Amino acid sequence: MTRGHEHAEMRSEGAAEQESKGAEGDSPLHRRASASLHAFLAALQFLTIVPPLMRRPFTPMELGQGVGYFPLVGLLMGGLLVGLDVSLRLLFPVGMTTALVLAAWVTLTGALHLDGFLDACDGLFGGATPEERLRILRDERVGAFAVVGGVLLLLVKYASLGATLDRSVALFLAPTLGRWGMALSVIAFPYARPEGLGRAMKDHAGWAQGVLATGIALAGVWLAGRWSGLAALALAGAVTWAGARFTLSRLPGLTGDIYGAICEVAETSVLLTLVALGS
Q: pLDDT at residue 2 above 80?
């Protein structure tokens, strides 16, 4: 055998070894782990202002599967808010700290859910027909219902945060259960429009994502709030269902703005529950 043949055979063996390693890395377990990671990153990027962590757009499948990780994103947000709250209380009075934490809470989401709540106030209460309400939901202008609703929402959140005995529990539970309610509304109720980001999520999110989201939410509320956390979860679920049913009485289905509104109202219900329970 010549030296050239030896080198060719060594290259061939090396290529075969690399192919074997590649096939091994592309195992079903590896593919599932990769799909789960991409789904989580899709949820994280959609729900927060975190800079893009992938250099390509997410696929509709990844967006739909990401719905199952919405409560996990809420838990991470809660952890950041708790850390910020503890730090700011070393420097400022409680009232000012509450205002700054609430501002950070809105900023972390890019005001995405608050904007949806404002649009929902105008759309659901300002139109005479379902078609007109859908048109108002797309309108970027802010009406009287949105202004009043937004001010009242932020006032109730501010007062509730100031009145809770354990702010850390409140800051963990509210973002988590708000996004759990959003996940359930995506999965369980019809979508109003034939296209759009919400349509892509709706079409690729199933009950497997609902089970995952509920499992994450249950684990989070039990670890953070025990029985008061479970009570908050029950009320958040009821508020989600009631909000979705009310929307369906006014529209043919839910929209992205309605998802944001449900998140905001569910968060507020959690804070009110904890205040009522003296938690």
A: no
